[in-house]
Amino acid sequence: MTKVLLTGVDGNLGGLAADYLLELTDKASLIFGGYSEDSLNKYSELGVETRQMNFNHVEGLAEKFQGVEVVALISMPFVGAKRQAAHKNVVDAAKAAGVKKIVYTSLVNAVDPTNPSVEKIDHAYTEKYIEGSGLDYIFLRNSQYAEAMITNYFTFVHMNAPLSNSQGDGKMAYISRKDCAKAVAHALLADELHHSIQNINGPELMTMADFVAIGNEVTGNNIEYKAITDEENYAIFDAMGVPRTTDGEFKKDSEAPYSSEGMVTFAQAIREGKMDVFTDDFEKLTADNALTVRYMFEHEADFQVGERHSQDN
């Protein structure tokens, strides 16, 4: 029996992917990994093999991948050299343990050198490192989570103010984090895909003004979208107490559990047309339709960004 290992089950995306895998395949073929032993207990109680692991530490890491053929590497939530090192550690350990394939959660247009998103730098590095390792791979290049912008929409509703950011008229095919998790689960089990790049995006390209209009129509609120400069965008996050980088301190229950550098440069990338990737890869991979922004607003309680999960020591 082929054994597949899903990492990051103690995070938002990984936890959702674990739920999908339990629906899709025999739990005897599954191994779930995470840094938090407490978060692994619920899976152990279901009879799933679990392995506690911390990608920041090389010693003993290869042992965590023994007996596994396919690994899903959920990208770490911190940005920069620390994330690159952690991802490299996983690839090296997996290869040393005899793993054949890595499924990696990347970002749309990750390898475009003109893409200004600071987030894409680590993804481009990791994709290149996996390619150079000689391992088989599936790169899941995700569009922006719709949950992040739905939460952001209600932040401005509560302020009775226009939703303001620096995306301008740029377009994005917003995807639910739940659908990204579904893509991870299916990719782990996709024996027919080799050295494959899958663009995981939602069913429609839209501007931020389009997004806000859908939110207003569904919820009955009436806010506008206001395009601002990148510096003005930083100022909004500064006022919210959002750290500029992932090395900063994150507030518990923050409505923006990301670094402002990541969000503002992402907005810049959208504004410059670097993120308007639109394919049917999700439907082909999962044999399902991606959730629409309208549906997510109609069920908005189920599509909030949630708390930040990070272990970077």
Q: Which labels suit this protein?
A:
41% helix, 13% strand, alpha/beta
Order of helices and strands: EHEHEEHEHEHEHEHEHHHH
Which strand order do you get reading across the main beta sheet? 3-2-1-4-5-6-8
What helical percentage do the residues reach? 40-55%
Question: What do the pLDDT scores average to?
Answer: 92
**Low-pLDDT windows of residues:** none
How would you explain this protein's 3D organization?
This protein is an alpha/beta fold. It is built from eleven helices and nine strands. Helix 4 (119-133) links the parallel strand 5 (101-107) and strand 6 (136-142). The longest helix has 17 residues, at 81-97. The two termini are 35 Å apart. The mean pLDDT is 92.
Produce a short descriptive summary.
The chain has about 325 residues and is α/β, with parallel strands linked by helices.
Break the fold down into its secondary structure elements and pairings.
Elements: E1 4-6, H1 12-24, E2 30-34, H2 37-45, E3 49-52, E4 70-73, H3 81-97, E5 101-107, H4 119-133, E6 136-142, H5 146-159, E7 163-165, H6 177-188, E8 196-200, H7 208-219, E9 225-227, H8 230-240, H9 260-271, H10 281-286, H11 293-298
Parallel strand pairs: 1-2, 1-4, 2-3, 4-5, 5-6, 6-8, 7-9
